[in-house]
Amino acid sequence: MKLNNIFIGLAALSLAACSDWTDIERETYPEQDNINLYIPLIEAQSEEDLTPAMREHYRQIREYRKTPHVKGFGWYGNWTGKGTNAQNYLKMLPDSVDFVSLWGARGNLSAEQKADLKFFQDVKGGKALLCWIIQDIGSAITPEGEDMHSYWLNKANGDAVEASKLYAHAIADTIVKYNLDGFDIDYEPGYGHSGTLADWNQISDSSSHNRKMYWFIKTLYDRFQEHEAATGKDMLLVMDGEPYKCTTETSEMIDHYIYQAYWENTTSQVISKIKREHLTDWERKTIITVEFEQGWRTGGITGYYSVRPEFSGVQGAQIFDYATLDLPSGKRIGGVGTYHMEYDFKNEPEYKWLRTALYYGNQKFPGNYQ
Fold this sequence. Notes:
By secondary structure, this protein is an alpha/beta fold. The chain has helices at 2-23, 52-64, 111-122, 148-155, 160-177, 211-231, 248-251, 267-274, 282-285, 292-295, 317-323, 352-364, and strands at residues 71-76, 97-103, 127-133, 182-187, 236-241, 256-260, 286-291, 335-339. It contains twelve helices and eight strands.
C-alpha cells in the first residue's frame, strides 16, 4: 500500500514538471549571453538569423557594392528559393555577384521566392531583374487567351507607339509589384528575334528610326526614375544582345550594355565587338558574358588567347580575360557575367569560374575603375 502511494506521488511530480516545461519561458543564464546561435545561410530568413560576425561581413559587402569595381553578373535560371539544393537560391550566389537577370521568371513569385529575393536584396545587397527577349509588343506578358498583336493595339486605339508604352507600363507594374530591381532588355533583332517592336533600325525618337522601341525604353526609364524618387530604391535598366542599336541619346537611359561574347577567342576580337564609342560611358557600362550551358566545366571556350600571359593555355582563360580586360583608354571593363550562371554551381568550389574571375578582376589584377 505504501509503495503504491510512492508511485502516485512520483507521477504527480512528473506531471507538475511537464507542466512547468510547457507553461514557463526557458530561463537564460548569464554564461549564455555571448553564445551566437549559428543558422546555415540556406535556412536564414533575415539578418536576425545571422551571427554578429556574419552581419558585419554583409554590411561590408553592401558598402563595397557602392564603390567602382568589376561587377559580377549572370543570367540565373532554375530559381525556386526552396528545398535543400543551394543551386536554387539567390542568397547562395557568391558575394561578388552584384546583380542577376532572372531567366525564365515572369512575375507571379512564390512565397519562397519572395523570401529569398528579400534576403538577397536586404542582407547581401544584390539586385534581381526581370528579363526576356523583347521581340513583339506584349511578348511574355500578354494575358492568356488573347491575341498578342490585337490586344495591345486595341488598348492603344491602334497607335503602335502608344501600345509599346502600355507594354512597358505593364512590365514596370510587375517589377514594382514584386519589389524587383529593374529590367534587362534582351534585344536581338539581328539574331532572329525581330518583330513588331524589335527591328534593324537605330533606336531613337526620329521618324526614320525605331520610335516604338525608343518609347518602350523611355517609358521604363521614366517609371524607374519615379520609383527611385518615391522609395529611394536604386533601379536598373540594362540592355543585352545588341545594345549598339541605341543612339547616344537613348544610351543615356541604359545603365549597362551587356554583350554575349560567347565564341570570340581573342582579346582583340572582344574589344572589336564591344567598342561602341557612340554609347555613353561605353567602357565602364559594358559587361561581357560567357556561355555556360556548354562551357561551365572549362570556364568558357577552350583555346582562348588572352593578352595576359598568366592565362595562356589555362582553363578559364576566356572568363579570366573578360574580368581583367583593360580597354584602349586604360579603363577596366565594367563587369563580367555568365549565361546560366547556376551551372557553375556544380564546380568545386561552387561557382568556381565566376568567383575566381571576379577575384582576378578586382583584387589580383586591379585596374582603373573610374
